[in-house]
């Protein structure tokens, strides 16, 4: 039987490549891709970074979005932009975009641009700090508007106990302990526990909790992860309960945690899944409206951490909490 069918060339992949290369063939857009390596920025923030009008920045982002180089992320009434979370790497377009990202990431950021990014992160951090300074006395009430402590603390504690070595953890860090409610869980499981918070008001509440519970192996440090990195500290377990949605650059928490983790160490994170309840910003001091599980996985992978167990907890008020487990299996950087 003679096969009379003819292979018709598919021009779609070529069209997609042309769109990608055209969109990326601009120095400014390459710089935008570079600053979006780990961060998520709004249009106004990007305009501030690159000293241009919002209309001009919106045009560039529209072109890049059409090519698949960025994707929008709604945060309340604002639109932020990030690199696409789920690149289809088995397509020519996906492979091309990933290669462009890999190449542009080899170009170091100009110092003036990094300084502007630090200013934006500082503005976000100040916003969070001011909230906790004003509402330190009502911390538990504010947090439980979204998720009762026990609902995420119990599965996180159970996971930590299951993973604990027979001789207990040697050194443990809790990032953002809040009023210290989780410190009594961690203290009996380790020799040395560090509570790190950038709010002196919240740190004072955490210290009072430890005094009330007679915990004597806890050190309280006011600062951020950079504070511990400068000291050269190393930990076997790091915990961050409902912290990421309060920090200026959530991806950096994974990078810093990886740098602070000893080989074979574990990172436990409980965090909100992405939601659209805008009131959480003003009532609870949230900078971000939760995160897709894929976001946390991507940030962890970029930091050299391996994702393992995932626990999802649905709440009656429409929120969902994810409890995640990440491990470091390479030599400490």
UniProtKB/TrEMBL annotation:
Quote the Gene3D superfamilies the UniProt record gives. Vaccinia Virus protein VP39 (3.40.50.150), Winged helix-like DNA-binding domain superfamily/Winged helix DNA-binding domain (1.10.10.10)
GO molecular function list: DNA-binding transcription factor activity; transferase activity
The organism's place on the tree of life at top rank? Bacteria
- Write down the InterPro entries for this protein, in alphabetical order: ArsR-like_HTH, HTH_ArsR_DNA-bd_dom, SAM-dependent_MTases_sf, WH-like_DNA-bd_sf, WH_DNA-bd_sf
Q: Which SMART domains does this chain map to?
A: HTH_ARSR
Q: Name one Pfam family in it.
A: HTH_5
Q: Which keywords annotate this record?
A: Transferase
Q: Which PANTHER family match?
A: PUTATIVE (AFU_ORTHOLOGUE AFUA_2G14390)-RELATED (PTHR43861:SF3), TRANS-ACONITATE 2-METHYLTRANSFERASE-RELATED (PTHR43861)
NCBIfam families found in the cross-reference section: HTH_metalloreg (NF033788)
Please state what the protein is called.
ArsR family transcriptional regulator
